[in-house]
Design brief:
Radius of gyration: 16 Å
CATH superfamily of one domain: Collagenase (Catalytic Domain)
Bound molecules: zinc ion
Largest sheet: 5 strands, mixed
CATH architecture of one domain: 3-Layer(aba) Sandwich
Shape: globular
Strand order of the largest sheet: 2-1-5-9-8
Order of helices and strands: EHEEEHEEEEEHHH
Structural class: alpha/beta
CATH topology of one domain: Collagenase (Catalytic Domain)
Distance between the termini: 8 Å
Strand content: 15-25%
Length: about 200
């Protein structure tokens, strides 16, 4: 990694495989065109567990991270491998503070095939990247998009998630570029992955 810190920090909470973090970081760096760092996270998720639902509260995770975080990164994406919920929904693949700093993605449901069994690793990684990119984009103020070919399309199922692509439509891309200009963000000149590996 370079001396200067990245714009986005990826933080595992609990057990998350390193390869998942690296693939997520590489995809975010490529699609957002901003530098990404993989950071050390916390080991325990106990604090966020809801015994009535047997799931972990995504909102509590975001609130906790926001209160505790002191890193120089402008945005933090937490990664967990447990099942997340928000009070109004049965489960979520991820959650974000719109125009905030924190987002979270859960890998828990992303390896499942509709009708049972698991999808290929390739499909699993693609889903993790899509959810991560989608949630992170919410923190830059992007909202849901009606365009079919856009990663900001709302998804409520794995079928939805598999349907939309890994990239932004022209409209969402220009919104994002506008946010970058306002934030005076350091974007990558050439798309390079070498800092990550
Ligand atoms: Zn969304
Ligand atoms: Zn869009």
């Amino acid at each position: 990694m370079s001396g200067e810190s990245g714009v986005v920090g990826i933080v595992p909470i609990g057990e998350v495989k390193q390869v998942v973090l690296k693939i997520l970081a590489a995809n975010i760096q490529a699609v957002f065109n901003i530098p990404v760092d993989i950071l050390n996270g916390r080991k325990s998720l106990k604090k966020f567990f809801n015994p009535n639902r047997n799931q972990y509260n995504a909102i509590t995770i975001l609130d906790h991270m926001e209160r505790r975080w002191k890193q120089p990164h402008k945005r933090i994406l937490a990664v967990v491998s447990v099942d997340l919920f928000i009070p109004i929904l049965t489960y979520v693949f991820g959650e974000a503070q719109i125009n905030g700093k924190m987002a979270v993605v859960s890998t828990y449901r992303l390896n499942r095939r509709t009708g049972g069994g698991n999808v290929s690793l390739e499909r699993f990684y693609e889903r993790v990247a899509k959810v991560g990119i989608h949630e992170l984009a919410h923190t830059f103020g992007l909202v849901h998009c009606k365009e079919n070919h856009c990663v900001m399309r709302a998804s409520y199922s794995l079928r939805d998630l598999d349907y939309y692509p890994l990239y932004f439509c022209d409209y969402c891309q220009s919104m994002l570029d506008d946010v970058y200009r306002r934030m005076k963000l350091r974007t990558l000149k050439a798309r390079s992955f070498e800092d990550l590996f």
